[in-house]
Amino acid sequence: MRAYADTSFLVSLYTPDANSVGAAARMKRLRTALFLTPFGELELLNALELRVFRGELTHSEVEAAQALLRGDVEKGLYTRKPLPAGVFERAAEIALKRTARLGTRTLDILHVASASILQADTFYSFDRNQKRLARIEGLRTP
């Protein structure tokens, strides 16, 4: 199995929210490292900072989440991959084929395109619309 996790999954994994228990349970069952691109990492870090802006997290909670992420990278829970070549072209193909019908957002398309080009077969997300796009694009969404 080759797996990719979007930002909704990673935020739930590293900070408390309604999906945190589910994210932790899936990680315990996972038997492979998750792909992590600079794009995915950037979006996660920005999402954490956005939660500070909204008053949902403190700076120290974000620092703790970032430390946990670094530790998990060091433990091998993630396989760091560069943003794949051709990801924007693949994303454009997906947008032209799917957005008019599904109403997909650009960053969601980029996650699915990245997973596709990295040859992931599983896509972890708590975003209902993004999971739908991933399934239509041939990814399993447990």
Order of helices and strands, N to C?
Answer: EHHEHHEHHEH
Structural class by helix and strand composition:
alpha/beta
How much of the polypeptide forms β-strand, as a percent range?
Answer: 5-15%
> What is the fold-level CATH name, i.e. the topology?
Rossmann fold
Helix amount: 55-70%
CATH homologous superfamily placement: 5'-nuclease
The averaged pLDDT comes out at 96
Which segments are poorly predicted (pLDDT under 50) over 5 or more consecutive residues? none
Number of strands: 4
Q: Architecture, CATH level 2?
A: 3-Layer(aba) Sandwich
The CATH class is: Alpha Beta
Describe the structure.
The chain has 7 helices and 4 strands; from the N terminus they run E-H-H-E-H-H-E-H-H-E-H. The protein is α/β, with parallel strands linked by helices. The chain has one domain: 5'-nuclease (Rossmann fold). The protein has a 4-stranded parallel beta sheet. The longest helix has 17 residues, at 59-75. It starts with a strand and ends in a 6-residue tail after the last helix. The model has no long low-confidence stretch (mean pLDDT 96).
